[in-house]
Amino acid sequence: MAKNKTAYVCNECGQDFPRWQGQCNACQEWNTITEVRLGATKSSSSSVGGYAGAVGGGSKKLSEIKEFEAEKMLTGIGELDRVLCGGLTTGSVNIISGDPGAGKTTLLSDLVSRMSQIMPSLYCTAEESLSQFKNRVNRLKLDCNEDNLYLMAETSVEAIIAELDAKQVKFAVIDSIQAVVTELANGSPGSPSQVKSSAQSLTQYCKQNNVTMFLVAHVNKNNETAGPQTLIHIVDCLTHLECNDGQIRTLRANKNRFGDVDTVGIFRMTERGMLSVDNPSEIFLSGSTTESAGATITCIRKGNRNLLLEIQCLTTETEGEFPQRVCVGLNMNRIKMLTGILRKHTKTKIFHDTYFNIVGGLKIDESETCIDLALVTALLSSLNDFVVPRTTCIMGELSLNGDVRPIDSGVPRVKEAVQHGFTEIFIPFRNYHKSMEGLGAKINPVKTIHELMELIN
């Protein structure tokens, strides 16, 4: 795009100035500086290619365009491959964001070590020293090819690209995009202009040279990717690492040009690093062989995965003037609402201190309403001191009028419960399907909270 250039010139002596001023500093005359429009010049931004590299060449027919299938390569990290829908896409640029201490660097250190056994790989850190990275590799006992693994402490994008080109690197990690700077933009590291220009330069190089790259990104106070929204549009895949209570980490894809975004990976942070959890239900079930009051098992849905988890409730006599409500991993507002439904429709008196807990340290989103029946059952079990068999799974949403509302993906949830040995399953009536009868478990469709109480008692 062409733009006009403006200059300010003194009519008396011809001295030019970057902006208008009242007196000429050269001839000391007043009000002699006027604005002069020079010829149009070509904007430097017009030569900048698109995010995927060079642009131009005119329009083409669909039949004239060469088709390239995206190649996938497995990383060896099971849950990461699941989130990326079959592995890393060659030549893709990916972002991983998350809270400090979530395990981004730990996960990518393992990844770059694995990739170094296949291709030349580079880990560029702008936030820690190279000795710190080496200590992490030794502490986690990561298996890498030292001849193919290059480490670099650099903040200049131009220097990083030169090193990638010199070593013919095919996989790279930049830690982090908020810490590097480029000569193509003004501002300090982490500023919107620097983040955008740095990401654009790195993406252009990766697309033109078939380099696969991971960019570490910071998050703001709202737990969203820090920086301009343009950053998300530039990259191919945006993943976010959530830190739950305890050692559990959840990796979710919020954008993926080469696969589905409805995927979730479960990791456990240990002394040996981030370990994939192939069967998350084993973590979220207590594994206790003794049955006790106040414990129920339900099935939630994380992305496209069904997870079985155990909900525990404990009720004790109130010693103070007002009963306490304490919950770990659950939304307090939903607990209060379910307590109100019980008091209204079942005349249950709850003058007790109530404590709720999710086994395994997982946090349940407020939008996850399928656990309503399990929460109510656990509360009634603790209040009335009766035991819900550990072979029973309960799922369903409870409305304010006491009706049981249907949940999404009812059949896959029931199949998941049956695969783990559950013999009796309570589901909303509208979720019932004939295909559930041949699975080998007793299916109890429930319409109202009153039906549930009659069945469990």
Low-confidence residue ranges:
39-47
The number of helices is: 11
Radius of gyration: 30 Å
Q: Which outline best applies?
A: elongated
Counting DSSP E segments of at least 2 residues, the number of strands comes to 23
The average pLDDT score comes to 86
CATH architecture descriptor text of the largest domain:
3-Layer(aba) Sandwich
Strand order of the largest sheet: 8-7-9-10-6-11-12-13-14
CATH class of the largest domain: Alpha Beta
What is the count of structural domains? 3
Helix content: 10-25%
What distance lies between the first and last C-alpha atoms, to the nearest angstrom?
76 Å
Strand content: 25-35%
CATH homologous superfamily placement of the largest domain: P-loop containing nucleotide triphosphate hydrolases
Might you state the CATH topology name of the largest domain? Rossmann fold
By helix and strand content, what is the structural category? Answer: alpha/beta
How many strands, which pairing sense, and closed or not: the largest β-sheet? 9 strands, mixed
Structural description of this entry:
The chain is of the alpha/beta class. The chain folds into 3 domains: 2-43; 72-278, Rossmann fold; 282-456, Ribosomal Protein S5, domain 2. 25% of the residues lie in helices and 28% in strands. The chain contains 11 helices and 23 strands. It has helices at 78-83, 104-115, 130-140, 157-167, 192-209, 230-234, 281-284, 332-345, 372-384, 410-419, 449-456; strands at residues 2-10, 16-17, 33-42, 72-73, 88-89, 93-98, 121-125, 149-152, 171-175, 212-217, 237-243, 248-256, 264-270, 273-276, 295-302, 305-317, 325-328, 352-358, 392-394, 397-398, 404-405, 424-428, 442-446. The longest helix has 18 residues, at 192-209. The radius of gyration is 30 Å and the shape is elongated. The termini are far apart. Residues 39-47 have low confidence and may be disordered. Keywords: ATP-binding, DNA damage, DNA repair, DNA-binding, Hydrolase, Metal-binding, Nucleotide-binding, Stress response, Zinc.
